[in-house]
Amino acid sequence: MRLFAQHGYAAVSMRQIAAGVGVQAGALYNYTPDKQGLLFGLMREHMDELLAARAERDVPADPLAQLEDFTRFHIAFHMERADEVFVSYMELRNLDAENFATIETLRRQYEDELEAILRRGVAAGVFSVPDSKIATLALIAMLTGVNTWYRTGGRLSVREVETIYWDMVRKAVAP
Amino acid sequence: MRLFAQHGYAAVSMRQIAAGVGVQAGALYNYTPDKQGLLFGLMREHMDELLAARAERDVPADPLAQLEDFTRFHIAFHMERADEVFVSYMELRNLDAENFATIETLRRQYEDELEAILRRGVAAGVFSVPDSKIATLALIAMLTGVNTWYRTGGRLSVREVETIYWDMVRKAVAP
DNA sequence: AATGTATCTGAACATCTGTTCAGATAAAAC
DNA sequence: GTTTTATCTGAACAGATGTTCAGATACATT
Question: In this model, does residue A112 exceed pLDDT 70?
Fold first, then answer.
């Protein structure tokens, strides 16, 4: 996973992966049908864990608290899995049509959770967004952007970053 | 460029590139010292054009108008160069240290323009952001996210997308 | 028409690619 | 202690990779 994140799926050979886990290349084929299966497995696992972790949280009552919860969850989860996030966002094009569709469905599920929050908030009059679908994608892009600059050990804690982004998210959807 | 965007730098061979321009692989070496030089050339050209296009615009007077101008410019420019943007954001890891630093410097220049706008706005009391550097990166990530979903010929025009995002940007940095 | 310059071809190079598989090795089940 | 099962090795495979280069081709200048 670290190898894929650092060099890219296509640039990493089965022999490098095998060396990474201390084994010969041929042995990998006891665990994956082919190279793409390996990538797909990692991606699917990541998305499953994302949705599972999300489902475990108990949802607050009002949309504003739900949005804050989503924001903090998204940032915290993505920050502690920088490699997985990177690969899952970057290597989609290396999946064949079927595998791509599977991952895309999972991603859509996750996006739908945020969109549902926004819609409820708009209906309740506590949010105002020009277009709930676009707002969803815009906010997720903004939040996921943390991964491009955050490095553990920097001047800000995860909690502080959460708060900074929450401030902007809250205002962006304010009426 | 289209090939790099669709399949990724590492997944595209020199022979494929050559075929794309109707030539044999060897002929490419009259134009680039090696494969990475080709990627670097495309990236550098893209960043130069970005900064040049930005420099051509005459800047509005107040920070609010400047921010709107930046937002609309960024979206419009990035939407009409989907492939270049995609490659420039995705293939950074395939550059060696020196080339990477060059591109990174150009990107930083661009980000600094937005940050300067934000700082002026904060100083003038028309903006309020928790951290101007982070806000810069957050906004750029959000705006660049358009490239993940927008397809020409969809239900929204570029101008409409600009306006939708501008609404969210404006509110996100509001006092 | 003859020369010089720039570009392109097509083959060759050494090396790497994903994948397969017979046989070695180890662990588990009886 | 023997047999079954699972896992790993190491070599082999056919083909692709980036890059080089002598020679062909086309074009511009004299």
Answer: yes
- CA A91 – CA A5 distance, rounded (Å): 9
Residues of A in contact with B122 (CB under 8 A): none
How long is the CA A34 to C1' C18 vector, in angstroms? 8
The mean pLDDT value for A27-35 works out to 90
| pLDDT value of residue A22 | 87
Chain B nearest-CA distance from A50, in A, is 20
* B154 contact residues in A (CB cutoff 8 A): none
The closest CB to that of A7, out of B93, B142, B168, belongs to B93
- A26 CB inside 7 Å of strand C: yes
The overall average pLDDT reported for chain A is 93
- Which DSSP symbol is given to A66? H
> Is the dihedral angle over the CA atoms A18, A19, A21, A26 positive or is it negative?
positive
Mean pLDDT of chain B: 94
A102 Cβ neighbours under 8 A, 6+ residues apart: A40, A44
Count of CB pairs separated by less than 8 Å, A with B: 87
Tokens 């939407």 identify what position? Answer: B79
> Is the minimum distance from the CB of B27 to strand C below 7 Å?
yes
Instruction: Identify the structural domains of chain B with CATH numbers, from first to last.
Output: 34-172 (1.10.357.10)
> Per the structure block, which two tokens stand in for B67?
């921010």
Q: Give CA A122 to chain center in angstroms.
A: 25
